[in-house]
Write a structure and sequence with these properties.
The protein folds into 2 domains: 462 residues, Multidrug efflux transporter AcrB transmembrane fold; 249 residues, no CATH class. Strand 2 and strand 3 form a beta hairpin. The protein contains 27 helices and 11 strands. It has 784 residues and is of the alpha+beta class. Strands 2-3-4-1-5 form a 5-stranded antiparallel β-sheet, with helices on both faces.
């Protein structure tokens, strides 16, 4: 491997224009495909096979009108005023009519009229969801106590789909689309909002607040550039040259452009979630900068320490550090592709795009980077740096790293126990971690999503922010729904202690499926709402038994509940798969039993502490003002799987770069703790710089507008901070010192079976040294 990469690196160095043009052509092809196919992305995150998705698919087939997404708009006035004045009622009614006239929005009055119902019937059917064309007369249950709201009346006629709070200060307009929000053209939500905002004209005093399902928040903002700026500063400090520092940045940006562009180029044929490209940008920038940094730094060290030419040093750097980059990248790709076995489509797409990004980044580091080094030539090291290297004392170059390594070796047991206690304490909040999808309840106070959520909760109850859609079917397939049976269904549902309001939407054409909208008393992310969904679905529930029917539950809230449960079930399987595969890779790289196991145990400590801190910050709200949000809430349901995969791969990067140096020292004759200290000295400075860069890049996303990106950015930044600085650079040398030379023990039978990958490049260096000695000998023996 190292010999092949050495030749590849020298070839790219010698023919830089060929390699550069080849990559530019690839980028051009990607751009052309984007121009032909366009860019397509969606916010949809569905999991096939879940109960809610099955019900939704069934509705799409049997009653398409009832399967679309739901949205709401709140109309408010200042405290002490009412909305139901003649002037304001006229404006609200006009705005609602205009919304109903927007394409893809279902008008319950129109559907009811087509089915032969009156306007009054239509309003009742549309109170929480629109009436289907095949509807039947509504049977509305009467709670024991009248709720603090009622229909909005205009000239004695209810306005379809609108409820008015008891104090008259808030009107809630709930409506439904013919398709899910993810399938709506971008112009539809904007047209709905524009139509509703007309109620604010003529100084009416009305404030229009759209729900979060109508207003899209940009996924990223301007703070990400800060992370890139910090990375640039660290590169300049580490490499001592603006030219040298620019190469890793250029390579990383090139890799992100090709990878993300490639994903968008095929987005017409493959569903791309909105988060997918952002995730690929995070990973591509981080690993792209780090991988190139390792190679450029190795080249510079060979030039400054060994006096090699830039050309020869570039080839050797690609052959040695490039080998470590290749296997580090392979570990990240394995960790990402491990998500495919879970069988969740949107996660698989994220994993594939992110994995391809890492693959492209590795290829660029091994081909484009040496080509760029060929353009730079000997200027990669300034005359000042060469003079300083030749005049400085080699023993003083890495003084701090040697002192740190010796300290961890000397106090190894104290450090091991201390790290376990610190990370174990940080992991405690994991036991209380709740998963879900961030909603308006956890949005910042100055956003319309939060203002809409709070207004609706105050005027009607939190449950109105997350209605459930129920499908009832008789146990006997030959039975049909009668008005009496429909009334019994609504009344039976209304008896549940956590049900606020039940409205009948209608039945399908064959009369054997009833569709009902149900408003819980608790919010979309409350545990009580999850219990309600489970109660409704249970085959042995009192509702199912009393009515002799089976109930299906769907809707955005139910979909999120099912998604969280599915991902929680898949998490242990996923962790097991990536751990086993990665241990095999590390076994091949280090030819040791203890090192891979130690690396895995260290990662487990890291990931538990990471999720503990993420729970404390984003769920409990600790230090929320520091991280730019107002209210805590459940953690993103797919965040644990996503972050575990990415962090495992990246943690093993640092494991490979740091411990391979220790193994290199061991192979070259250093024994016991001496190999640990010497190897740590060789790699720690560059691992430290790489970790700072990666933390900076990920931390830049913490202040992104999107709540999901915030959580992912924080978890990745915290995870790298913990794993790189506490585990790899502190715990690892302490544990290696405990085992000493036994850390490299490998059974002889296994040693014979495993191929020698020569990650450290020993065979390459030996061959090159032999070649150099042979050349010197020939010159010496040449007759005068």
């Amino acid at each position: 491997m190292s010999t092949f990469l050495y030749k590849l690196g020298k070839s790219a160095y010698d023919k830089p224009w060929q390699f550069l043009i080849a990559w530019i052509v690839i980028l051009g092809i990607v751009g052309t495909l984007i121009g032909v196919n366009g860019i397509h992305s969606s916010s949809e995150m569905k999991i096939a096979g879940t109960e809610s998705q099955k019900v939704l698919d069934q509705l799409t087939k049997e009653l398409p009108e009832a399967s679309g997404g739901q949205a709401s708009i709140a109309f408010t006035v200042p405290d002490g005023e009412r909305l139901d004045t003649p002037e304001r009622l006229a404006l609200i009614q006009k705005a609602i009519e205009d919304v109903y006239n927007v394409e893809y929005v279902i008008n319950p009055a129109k559907l009811a009229a087509e089915a032969g119902f009156s306007a009054s019937d239509a309003s009742q059917m549309g109170a929480t969801a629109p009436q289907s064309a095949q509807g039947t007369e509504t049977n509305q249950a009467s709670p024991a106590e009248m709720p603090p709201y009622g229909p909005l009346m205009v000239n004695g006629v209810p306005v379809p789909g609108v409820l008015l709070s008891s104090d008259g200060a808030l009107a809630l307009f709930q409506f439904q689309f013919t398709v899910q929000q993810a399938s709506l053209p971008k112009s539809v939500p904007d047209a709905v909002i524009d139509a509703a905002m007309a109620a604010e004209q003529n100084n009416s005093g009305i404030t229009t607040i759209p729900s979060d399902t109508l207003k899209s928040t940009p996924a990223i903002g301007s703070t990400e550039a800060i992370g890139i700026l910090v990375a640039a500063v660290v590169l300049i400090i580490t490499l001592g040259s603006v030219v040298a520092a620019g190469l890793p940045l250029l390579t990383a940006i090139f890799g992100v452009a090709i990878s993300i562009g490639g994903a968008f180029a095929f987005s017409k044929f493959i569903a791309i979630n909105d988060i997918t490209p952002i995730l690929a940008v995070m990973i591509g920038l981080a690993v792209g900068i780090d991988y190139s940094l390792f190679i450029v730094n190795r080249q510079r060290r060979m030039i400054l320490d060994q006096g090699l030419s830039a050309r020869e040093a570039a080839g050797r750097a690609v052959g040695t550090a490039g080998s470590a980059v290749f296997f580090a990248g392979l570990t990240v790709i394995i960790a990402l592709f491990g998500m495919l076995v879970i069988g969740i489509e949107f996660l698989s797409t994220m994993a594939i795009v992110a994995g391809i990004t890492v693959f492209v980044t590795v290829l660029l580091a091994l081909t484009l980077l040496p080509a760029l080094l060929g353009f730079v030539g000997e200027r990669i090291c300034s005359p000042k740096a060469r003079t300083k290297a030749s005049s400085s004392d080699p023993k003083a170059k890495q003084g701090f790293s040697i002192r740190w390594a010796k300290g961890t070796v000397k106090y190894r047991w104290l450090i091991i126990i201390g790290v376990i206690i610190v990370l174990g304490t940080a992991a405690i909040p994991v036991t209380k971690m709740e998963l879900g999808i961030p909603s308006g309840a956890s949005a910042n106070l100055d956003t319309t999503a939060r203002q809409s959520y709070d207004a609706i909760s105050k005027g009607f109850g939190e449950g109105f922010n997350g209605p459930l859609l129920l499908v009832g079917e008789p146990q006997n397939a030959s039975d049909k729904f009668t008005p009496e049976k429909l009334g019994s269904l609504v009344q039976e549902l209304q008896k549940h202690e956590n049900v606020s309001l039940v409205s009948l939407i209608g039945v399908n054409k064959t009369g054997d499926m009833a569709i009902v909208s149900l408003i819980p008393k608790t919010g979309p992310t409350d545990l009580a709402t999850k219990d309600l969904v489970n109660d409704l679905r249970a085959a042995d529930s009192s509702i199912a038994k009393n009515l002799d029917m089976k109930l299906g539950v769907t809707g955005f809230t139910a979909i999120n509940i099912d998604m969280s449960s599915k991902l929680a079930e898949a998490f242990p399987l996923y962790v097991g798969i990536i751990v086993i595969l990665s241990i095999i890779i590390l076994l091949l790289v280090f030819r040791s039993i203890i090192v891979p196991i130690k690396a895995t145990v260290g990662f487990i400590l890291s990931i538990l502490a990471t999720f503990g801190l993420t729970t404390a910050v984003y769920q409990w709200g600790w230090m929320h003002s520091l991280f730019g949000f107002d209210t805590g809430g459940p953690l993103l349901s797919f965040m644990p799987i996503l972050v575990t995969g990415i962090l495992y791969g990246l943690a093993m990067d640092y494991q490979v770069f740091l411990v391979s140096s220790m193994r290199e020292s061991y192979v070259h004759g250093h024994r016991g703790t001496e190999s640990v200290v010497h190897g740590y000295d060789l790699a720690s400075r560059i691992v430290l710089a790489a970790a700072v860069i990666m933390v900076s890049v990920f931390a830049g996303f913490i202040f992104a507008p999107d709540a999901m990106i915030k959580q992912i950015g924080f978890a990745l930044a915290a995870g790298i901070l913990i794993d790189a600085f506490i585990v790899r650079m502190t715990l690892v040398p302490a544990v290696m010192a405990v085992f000493g030379d036994k850390a490299w023990w490998l059974p002889k039978w296994l040693d014979r079976l495993l191929p020698n990958l020569d990650v450290e490049g020993d065979k390459l260096i030996s061959a090159l040294n032999a070649q150099d000695n042979s050349s010197v000998k020939k010159k010496t023996n040449k007759p005068a």
